[in-house]
Amino acid sequence: MRTLLLCALVFGAGCYSYQLRKPTVTPLEAFGPVASDLAEVCVMRPHWIAWAVTAAVRDNGQLVGATRGDTYFCYLVRPGHHQIESETVDLTERAELDAAPGRRYWLHQLVDNYIAVVRTRLAWVDEPAARELIAKCGYRELSGVPGQERLPSGDPIASR
After folding, report:
1. Of 2.60.40.2890, 2.40.240.10, 2.170.120.30, 1.10.10.10, which CATH number belongs to 17-144?
2. pTM of this structure
3. What is the average pLDDT across 77-90?
4. Which residues of 15-24 are buried (b: 16+ CB within 10 A; e: fewer)?
């Protein structure tokens, strides 16, 4: 019984927690021009379902950000093939992208909560849909990560 209580306290304290913060200035805009030699990806989660569950996002295996509740973030990538993963405690979902220089891509995290199992299905959307989705979100960036994980450096992700 003590072990069960200890595990519940440790889990509740955030062993799997990623901390997010609202920056004073949004570092990357979701619309407008993109540097001609890079591409940009914006990940949007405009859903209140499972609002307390964090979804860590990796691009080619590198942590690039996370969402929790109705949030979004953007990051730069080098042109080429990208395997993007959205990971909750329960499941990992994947999307692929062949990024072209000077382009922006919007990835919608659709949240499902099936009897306490949270899943973030991934769907690419066009700019008009992205504008509607982002209007329901607040920009957040990672400010803390669990264990041996490393915060994103802000540098573009190399393609594989």
Report:
1. 2.60.40.2890
2. 0.85
3. 93
4. eeebbbeeee
